[in-house]
Design a protein that fits this description.
Length: 154
């Protein structure tokens, strides 16, 4: 179990989350590129989690993913920073946008999904899992996290 702290970009929303880190991956789909205003988005999945908002509150909207799933997205209503996702078909996991964490030095994704949309100038690490689109299931991503070196995990 880990305890992680983070906040939105403007600082009006702070959170603490405890749980078991299940996996960390980068998503290169166009939706994640738009949402992050960058080359990719990242997802840190926690199981057995407890989320506490220490300051502020979130707003929420639901979106349809490129793979046809529905994701509930929570964000800061002041600055718009996306903080948490909850896929309706995997409610046992809370997905944190890990760039919002206070400590990001340990973040090393074990997989890259939606590689077919990845920016051509971005080299992807050869020692991680790669998927052209969305994986059929996330079992291999969960297993890869368990096998990652200790310095890659909180």
């Amino acid at each position: 179990m880990v305890e992680l702290h983070g906040q939105c970009q403007c600082g009006q929303l702070r959170y603490r989350v405890t749980g078991r880190v299940a996996t960390l991956f980068a998503c290169h789909c166009r939706d994640c590129q738009r949402q992050s205003a960058s080359a990719f988005g990242m997802a840190l999945w926690l199981g057995d989690y407890q989320l506490t908002l220490l300051r502020g509150h979130t707003a929420q909207w639901a979106r349809h993913t490129p793979s046809g799933r529905i994701t509930d997205c929570q964000f800061c209503p002041q600055c718009g920073s996306r903080l948490f996702h909850q896929n309706r078909d995997t409610p046992q996991f809370l997905s944190i946008k890990p760039g919002s964490l206070d400590d990001t030095a340990w973040l090393r994704p074990v997989a890259h999904i939606w590689k077919q949309s990845a920016q051509p100038w971005l080299p992807l690490p050869a020692d991680s899992l790669h998927y052209a689109g969305n994986p059929d299931d996330f079992a291999d991503l969960l297993a890869a996290w368990q096998q990652a070196p200790g310095d890659c995990r909180a």
